[in-house]
Write a structure and sequence with these properties.
Number of strands: 11
Strand content: 25-35%
Strand order of the largest sheet: 2-3-1-5-4-9-10-11
Helix content: 25-40%
């Protein structure tokens, strides 16, 4: 990835990046699409020699993942990747359809900075419910098999964060709480934005209705970013982690 850190001036741009991906409309195909996006970001990190690991996976029954959370640990990882947040749309011939019909799938990507702790947000032990469970699922290369997975729930907001990657329960709990800080930060930002929209009399955004990028594999080959107009006629390369063009176009808009 080209070094353009001089353009990354955000308050938390220097932080590690936590990426959560959620299957949206599209059934089994959407769950498979979630796994494809996981691989894309995993390969992007590896191409840049940025340490990456999956913190939590919830697998689908038939294929793919219902949701997955990974962390990329590198200076400015959040600054580079924060504009990947949004709905990603896939159009292809479905491998899960007996007639091999064209199918459209959606997945939501959320990118958050990792925090050790935040002065603006206080998390007290009495604010949390901590549950332990046995990790399961086809994590493969992405996640360790462990019997010490931890899920923490923030009682006031209902937000949850989980980690199953570390082998020790205590380490999973620490990771989960750090992830919860990030989720609470994002929750706070969304509430502020909603307040501004209500004051301006704007209607609520339909979260799944506005994709930021489309990946078309049939009837033609094209990846297009709907914010910048950046395009690639090689979806295989993009899904293989070649995101530099799209990321640079977004940062150049700053």
């Amino acid at each position: 990835m080209e070094d353009i850190t001089d353009k990354l001036k955000g308050k938390y741009d220097k932080n590690n990046a936590i990426i959560s991906i959620y299957a949206g409309a599209g059934g089994i195909d959407a769950q498979d699409w979630t796994e494809m996006l996981l691989k894309m970001y995993f390969k992007f990190a590896q191409k840049n020699d940025w340490p990456v690991q999956v913190l939590q996976i919830k697998e689908g029954k038939e294929a793919g993942f219902k949701n997955v959370t990974l962390i990329i640990e590198s200076p400015y990882a959040y600054g580079y990747l924060k504009r990947e947040s949004g709905v990603h749309r896939l159009v292809r011939l479905s491998p899960f359809n007996a007639n091999n019909l064209r199918h459209t799938s959606f997945a939501l990507v959320e990118v958050m900075p990792e925090f050790e702790e935040m002065k603006e947000i206080e998390i007290r032990p009495e604010d949390l419910r901590v549950d332990t469970y046995r990790a399961s699922g086809p994590g493969g290369q992405y996640v360790n098999k462990t019997e010490s997975a931890v899920r923490v729930t923030h009682l006031a907001t209902g937000l949850t964060a989980a980690c199953q990657n570390e082998r020790l329960q205590g380490e999973n709990k620490k990771r989960a709480i750090k992830l919860l800080y990030s989720k609470l930060y994002q929750y706070k930002l969304k509430n502020k934005e909603q307040e501004r929209k209500e004051l301006r009399g704007e209607s609520k955004a339909v979260e799944w209705g506005s994709q930021i990028r489309s990946y078309v594999l049939h009837p033609y080959q094209m990846v297009k970013d709907h914010r910048t107009g950046a395009k690639s006629g090689n979806p295989e390369a993009v899904l293989g982690g070649k995101l530099d063009k799209f990321i640079k176009e977004e940062i150049d808009k700053l």
